[in-house]
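Researcher: I'd like a structural prediction for the single chain below. Treat it as a standalone chain; there are no partners to consider.
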Amino acid sequence: MAIERLCPNCGEPNDDSRSICKNCSVPLNVYGGQVGQEEQFDRKLAVQVQSLDVRPPAVWAAVVLMLLFVLLVPVSIGFNSIHNWQSTANNPNYMAHAVSVIVPIFTLAITVPVDVVVCILAWAVFSQKTAAWKPGIFALLVTVPAIWMSHGAVIAIIWSIVTITVTVMFSLRNVKAWYGF
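Model: Treating it as a single chain, here is the predicted structure.
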C-alpha cells in the first residue's frame, strides 16, 4: 500500500513517490523544486512558442503603411506634375513649361526604385526576416519627411501621427521577440 502525502499548498493527497503535487505542481520534496522548475519552464516555453505563431498587429500595420507609402507618393507626384504642367502652359517662360515636364520623369526615376526597395522590405517585415526589423523601423520613420515634401499639411500631420504610433508599436517587446530579438 502506497503512503500518501498531503500537499502543503492545496491539501491534495499525493503518492509518496511523487516529487511535485499532481494538482498544483508545488514541490513536495527537495527534488520536486527541480522537477517543478523544468515543467514550469516547459509551460512557459510552450506559451512563448504559441505567441510566435501569431503575427503581431504592429507587423500588419507596418506593412500596410509601407504599401500605402508606395502607392501614395508616385500617385501624388503624378497629380502634382500634371497640375504644375497645366499651370505653366500659359506662362510666357517656355523654359519653365519644358522643365515642368522633365521634373516628374526624374522624380519618378528616383521614386520607382525606392518603391521597389520598400516593397521588398515590406515583404521581409511580413515574412518575419530577422534582419528586416531595424530597416523596417527606419523605413517607417523615413516616410514621414517624404510625405511632408509631397503632400499637404493635413495629410502629412495625419501620416506622421499614424507612422509614429505604428513605429512605437513595432518597437514593443512582443514584436521584437517575434523577430527573434
